[in-house]
Amino acid sequence: MSNWRIHVLGDEPMLSVDGRPFQLPEMAWALLACLLSSSQRSVSRSRLVTTLWPDSDEEAGRHCLATMLWRLKQRLPCISGLLETVGDKVGLTMGSRVWIDALVLEQRAQRALADPFWLNFAVNRHKLWRSLKLYRGEFVARFDNDMVLIERERLRAVFLDASFQLAFAHAQHDEWRETLEITRSLCAVEPLREDAQRLLIQAYAACGNRALAIQQYHELEKLLSTELAVRPMRETTDVIGRIASTPETPRPSVSSSRNMLLQARAQMFAAVAIIDEALGQLPA
């Protein structure tokens, strides 16, 4: 049996069978997008016809669907390992041999959202971060039918919520570099999410970049005013107030750091010399 690997997050969907890339026709990708948009991973032929061939009548649409499925089987004989037809429904054959980026991301994201305590373990934080990196862009961005649009927004919300949960977990463990990286990615996707922006500001400050934290706040303030005609929430102004009022600790220069290390090395050598001298005075 064949192993399938399918990427549907991003501008260019990709499919490989047993490690070999395979090009699918546009309508085949549209079919896969519809099947993945269904919680059951299967859709009736009537709904597929209405969605994929909205300008055709029922009979003509069913003929188009049957022709497309037949052509897929001719071009890719192992397609039965991915698609199945049962009665009036067309569905995806799910199993260990079928890997789909959107499903992998959602499974791990929902695990974290259902049980935030799960993220207390570093290994789980790493697993979730690897899964979130699968989000290379929106769900099959080239198609815009109703089924796909709803699923696209749902997966986007899952990605954003799981990203924030992960960033917050890193912050709780004083892993501010990781928090900074995740919140920057999160805010790039949804800049109007103020809780993420607030955590990004805190991450900048915790990483020693108070100036960037203040700059990020002013950018958020301008964005909220322009897009929503509102000001930042009290929680956000409190955060930036504490950051702005805290004196910035100067970072040691490269030269001063080098001098400190040289002094420490000299002191270490002196201590070793004293120990060697003391040992030499003791009987063997």
Any overview of this molecule?
Helix content is 62%, strand content 8%. The protein is an alpha+beta fold and 284 residues long. The strands form two sheets. It has a four-stranded mixed β-sheet with strand order 3-2-1-7. It has a three-stranded antiparallel β-sheet with strand order 4-6-5.
In short:
This protein is an alpha+beta fold and 284 residues long. It has helices at 26-37, 45-52, 58-75, 101-114, 122-132, 146-172, 176-189, 194-206, 210-228, 234-245, 254-280, and strands at 4-7, 14-17, 20-21, 42-44, 83-86, 89-92, 98-100.
Element string (H = helix, E = strand): EEEHEHHEEEHHHHHHHH
Shape: elongated
CATH architecture of the largest domain: Alpha Horseshoe
Q: Beta fraction of the residues?
A: 5-15%
Q: Any chance you could write out the topology, listing elements then pairs?
A:
Elements lengths: L3 E4 L6 E4 L2 E2 L4 H12 L4 E3 H8 L5 H18 L7 E4 L2 E4 L5 E3 H14 L7 H11 L13 H27 L3 H14 L4 H13 L3 H19 L5 H12 L8 H27 L4
Parallel strand pairs: 1-7
Antiparallel strand pairs: 1-2, 2-3, 4-6, 5-6
